[in-house]
Amino acid sequence: MSALHPKTIPAKARAVIIGGGVSGCSVAYHLAKLGWTDIVLLERKQLTSGTTWHAAGLIGQLRGSQNMTRLAKYSADLYVKLEAETDVGTGMRQVGSITVALTEERKHEIYRQASLARAFDIDVREISPHEIKQMYPHLNVSDVVGAVHLPLDGQCDPANIAMALAKGARQRDATIVENVKVTKVHARAGRVTGVSWTQGDEQGFIEADVVVNCAGMWARELGRQNGVTIPLHACEHFYLVTEPIPGLTRLPVLRVPDECAYYKEDAGKMMLGAFEPVAKPWGMEGIREDFCFDQLPEDMDHFEPILEMGVNRMPMLATAGIHTFFNGPESFTPDDRYYLGEAPELSGYWMATGYNSIGIVSSGGAGMALAQWINDGEAPFDLWEVDIRRAQPFQKNRRYLKERVSETLGLLYADHFPYRQMATSRNIRRSPLHEHLKARGAVFGEVAGWERANWFARPGQEREYRYSWKRQNWFDNQRDEHLAVRNGVGLFDMTSFGKIRVEGRDACAFLQKLCANDMDVAPGKIVYTQMLNQRGGIESDLTVSRLSETAYFLVVPGATLQRDLAWLRKHLADEFVVVTDVTAAEAVLCLMGPDSRTLIQKLSPNDFSNETNPFGTFQEIEIGMGLARAHRVTYVGELGWELYISTDQAAHAFEAIEEAGADVSLKLCGLHTLDSCRIEKAFRHFGHDITDEDNVLEAGLGFAVKTAKDDFLGRDAVLRKKESGLDRRLVQFRLKDTQPLLFHNEAIVRDGKIVGPITSGNYGHHLGGAVGLGYVPCKGESEADVLSSSYEIEIAGQRFAAEVSLKPMYDPKAERVRM
Ligand SMILES: NCCCC(=O)O
Questions:
Q1: pLDDT at position 2, please?
Q2: 579, part of any domain
Q3: Do 581 and 680 have their domain in common?
Q4: What residues does the FAD dependent oxidoreductase central domain cover (predicted)?
Q5: Is the pLDDT assigned to residue 532 strictly greater than 50?
Q6: Which residue's alpha carbon is nearest to atom 6 within ligand 1?
């Protein structure tokens, strides 16, 4: 594709896309397909010249979650059709893929993924070493314990995929211009207004309401110019390509994650690529201005261990000459997930970037999803996993990123054990009680940069995770904590909750507009509510305390704070309201369990009776010699109080609680116990059980929706759903066999047919078995129909009988919270 003369660059466009890699081309293609004709894509050098040109081009559909699988399948299907549509040879060949396991743990993981993939009609089959050998005779299978085969996976020519997408976009009137650098994204009053560009001596401005940052490893610094957080960092990625190997014919793509390796046969040569455990971050001093189709110096010492394993796995490599030893930079993110969506800091600033070496298979689906999102103003389905609003402002710190990506590159092929914690870039955000908890045996996990006590080790017990798909080393600790909450009293540090103040003359009207529940309650009341989108899907799940006539205090999960702030600010019209993040101002200590009243009454002279402080109310209290707000709510399904304490007084309050707690056997509890208790009680968790794709009625939260009040966002959709009836509903499961575990994404089998994934799971230490939540179809069915089916949960290919319930199996009448 040749460069176009700059005079062809329009002065105005509906959307400007920055970056001509596969990502930008896909966004342009999909916007054009939606009928957006006035789109301009600007590429600083030549199309594909950043990362796309050296990608391996593997198209693997086996992904860790439902919607990532859905997007990968979309890409695979699109790339198969693209050549016929555009006449550009894409090199797409459905050679299939094999992933082999060298350990039982890995076998369990890939079999679990296969169960999930089958739920989406992806052709996948578990195969034996003997069957591998038939498909892949060159492979040493002596230590292979299992494998999965996906016949419709494949490989392609990445640069030509991008070219085909670009051609498809241009056929629909998109303008694509090379050798044009965007120098600045302009904004006014919190909205994008256009971009300045330069080409040689010429400069110009394009007015646009939508700008899409698809700038790959340049995206972070481009975002920084506008205060937009895009936490990614480049790493060196290595592969080699052999000379032609006599007799080498078409082979499936092969992944041997236990050896960090992937293999691709191409034109009789073999490619061996790696995701080594400790990667080499690159570009710390910035990326050279003239970077174009560049590669980095080889580092044989770094690649040697991979090659050694490769020669053992594929003995023919020992005698094959090496044609190319390649090293090229690619972008990696702190959690190995890419970024899609609109920047919370700036309206009209969108992005599709940070692909963690799976840009080719991701870009087709991501471009489709982002284009629909831009077009409709709402994500077409749940994209929370890759939503830019999960990024934390501190994460653009370059030292943080450099250390973290040295780990995340290797994690692509590491065992993805449940509860696996990052080893790098830790301890950035800490509760004021961190050292107290650490001294008492806390083992920490990280969410949104927060260190949180996940479980408490006993004296003398190793304070580390031993990961497994079976019961991990903290299972008994969790049981003790869980039973303390059910039968006595437990103390959780939940300082990581996101806390937002909404204040001003119109605070009530503003929240009435956004929240589905009635927010016009008396000061002192707490309301559980959701904020909905136009489809009745759940954008946010929160509790709201009315502090005064003009002030509300919102509590959201720590991980969704940026998203929730963005949602609130996006919907501020002309109301007199200020929205402030006050997360760091208060620590949160939760006293939960039937003995919590006895304990809190010992600590404080205030009255905690049902008369004075019933469920769903708060009061200011004296605690020790300080103050706190005691909120009578619970996320574990017990009598309890969440204590909001000014950060400076948190340690004092903790010490007072601990001292008073000795008489009632107060137990310190971690986040794993919070999770197991809340799933027993069937309390939903945003991002797992409830998302913007899930209708609030189907999620079983109709009790918190007040359609009788004046209009609120999503009300019409709720009424429509009431009228048309539910298509699916969230139910609770308990496995009858007490041994297996549920985490999430296990397949729900109804009357022998897979109907969807478990959305969240944990071990119900009170109910005595693994418990989980998940949606089942119910169109036109009564509750009795849903309950009369037979249910099983498929875990790594094995099916286990499950009980099902529409009501919480634990305390279905909610008597305990009102004790
Ligand atoms: N860029 C390498 C992709 C690796 C994989 O698909 O497994």
A1: 42
A2: yes
A3: no
A4: 376-431
A5: yes
A6: 58
Q: Residue 590: enclosing H or E segment and its boundaries?
A: strand 586-592
- 53 and 186 both lie in a single domain: yes
Give me the number of domains the chain comprises.
Answer: 3
Distance 241 CA to ligand 1 centre (A): 15
Does 271 score more than 60 pLDDT?
yes
* For the CA of 360, the nearest atom of ligand 1: 1
Helix axes 22-33, 158-171, angle to 10 degrees: 30
Q: How far is the CA of 127 from the centre of ligand 1 (A)?
A: 21
- Cα–Cα nearest to 571, from 653, 663, 506: 506
Phi, psi for residue 311 in degrees, rounded to 5: -70, -35
Q: Name the band, by pLDDT with cuts 50, 70 and 90, for residue 220.
A: very high
Any ligand 1 atom below 6 A from CB of 62: no
Nearest CA to ligand 1 atom 3: 358
CATH number, domain of 109, equals: 3.50.50.60
In a domain, 463, yes or no: no
Residues 544 and 682 in one domain: no
Residue with tokens 């720590």: 558
**Is position 404 within any domain?**
no
Alpha carbon of 507 to ligand 1 centroid (Å): 49
Tell me if 377 is assigned to some domain: no
For the chain, percent of residues with pLDDT exceeding 70: 99
To test ligand 1's pocket by mutation, which of 22, 53, 58 has the most ligand atoms within 8 angstroms of CB? 58
Pocket test for ligand 1, best of 23, 357, 361, 362 (most atoms within 8 A of CB): 357
264 lines ligand 1 (CB under 6 A): no
Expressed in angstroms and rounded, the spacing between residue 337 Cα and the centre of ligand 1 is: 14
367 within 8 A of 374, measured Cβ to Cβ:
no
Distances (CA, A) of 735 to 103, 273, 811: 26, 41, 18
Beta strands 490-493 and 586-592 are antiparallel
Q: Is any ligand 1 atom within 6 A of the Cβ of residue 257?
A: no
Q: How far is the CA of 357 from the centre of ligand 1 (A)?
A: 6
- Check whether residue 120 and residue 14 sit in a common domain: yes
What is the 55 CA–ligand 1 centroid distance (Å)?
Answer: 8
Residue 358, ligand 1, Cβ within 6 A: yes
What one-character DSSP code corresponds to residue 7? G
* ipTM metric: 0.96
With a 6 Å cutoff on the Cβ, whether 359 touches ligand 1 is no
Query: pLDDT tens for residues 74-111?
Result: 999 999 999 999 999 999 999 999 999 999 999 999 99
Cβ of 56 closer than 6 Å to ligand 1, yes or no, is yes
Last residue in a domain, options 555, 585, 615: 585
Q: Which domain CATH number covers 502?
A: 3.30.70.1400
**Which residue, of 300, 332, 364, is where some domain finishes?**
332
413 CA distance to ligand 1 centroid (A)?
A: 9
Of 306, 296, 158, residue with least CA distance to 236: 296
Q: Are residues 164 and 308 in the same domain?
A: yes
pLDDT band, very low/low/confident/very high, at 513 (cuts 50, 70, 90): very high
At 192, which amino acid appears?
V
Contact criterion met (CB below 8 Å) for 497 and 542: no
Per the structure, the complete domain to which residue 569 belongs is given by 498-585
Distance (Å) from CA 57 to ligand 1 centroid: 7
Cα separations (Å) of 123 from 60, 120, 280, 784?
A: 12, 9, 36, 33
Tokens of 35: 């009928």
| Segments of 768-815 assigned E as strands | 769-777, 791-795, 798-805
Could you tell me if 317 and 178 lie in one domain? yes
Do 55 and 192 reside in the same domain of the chain?
A: yes
Q: Given the CA of residue 357, which atom of ligand 1 is nearest to it?
A: 1
Amino acid at 222: L
CATH code, domain carrying 697: 2.40.30.110
Once rounded to an integer, what is the mean pLDDT over residues 787-811? 97
Do 697 and 572 fall within a single domain? no
Q: Is the shortest distance between the CB of 55 and ligand 1 below 6 Å?
A: yes
**Ligand 1 centroid to 350 CA: how many Å?**
25
